[in-house]
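Researcher: Structure for this, please.
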Amino acid sequence: MRRAELNRGGEIGAHAHREIRQAVAYGDLRRQFSDEEIIDLCFVIGLSNLVNRFHATFLTDLDDRTTQALGGSCPLSVPPQPDGG
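Model: Predicted structure, token format:
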């Protein structure tokens, strides 16, 4: 077998494994939530990811109110701001 074929086989195996994990996770969710609640969860999680990636990309500053509300609750340190800009 050629290396490309072996690699493709690995991709197919990984894809099948991912589908099985998703099916199991969806089944677990269905036991706890309605379809509407699962859609709401997916939307909120997706929106949170979008907002977090935006802020991480542009290194936006937190306003004072948010900084005070968070206090020392975040175990990650704030990355240093880039020079210039």
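Researcher: Any notable elements?
Model: Residues 8 and 14 are 10 Å apart (CA to CA). DSSP finds three helices and no strands in the chain.
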